[in-house]
Amino acid sequence: MSESEVEVDSKDTREVIMEATFRALSEHGYKDLRVRDIGDEMEMSRQVIHYHFDGKYDLLSSFLEYIIDQYEGSVEVEGETSPRSELDARIDQCLFGPEFDEFSHWDRMKVYHELYAHAQNDEQHRELFNDHYARIQGSIVEVIEKGIADGEFREVNAERMGQLVTDVIHAARERRISLDHEDAPAEARKAIDEFILDSLYPPRNGE
Description:
The chain contains 10 helices and no strands. The protein has helices spanning 3-7, 10-32, 35-40, 47-52, 56-72, 83-96, 105-118, 123-149, 158-178, 184-196.
């Protein structure tokens, strides 16, 4: 590896490697992916990968964390936002995704769900996905509990409702990716509104 490559800021270098991994996974898939394929997607020498990662497995574990971090940090809500508006923002982010300069939300979700499918045989990756699931569910539960405390929502089992919303999101994304049902996210969003979120409000007088 050249001296100039070593001097590249490690954060910038990591992002270059992660985005190259996106491109390589999109082209070759998880099963056939080689470190060489990732190196071919970078302008830097392939040796920079070996400098930062201990092999393909270490690289893919970091890549999975990279995907998750992109989504964890992309929800922005104002301090005075109502619980319902915050729920809408979090659900929309999961179903429709943030904007990226390269590779769309669905390009990224395709790679995410391919790794997800292999997690049943990989304990470390399964733990990462379990943690991500818990964080998505937990963020929804937290907002529901806030809405209950503020009197905006009626008393419900927030944990169970958060789990239901999270499961609908996962199912809709999988249907969009695996079955090419492009309307799945939008239809899931309508169902979440009609059958889940609208039920959070106390019945009006006479209903």
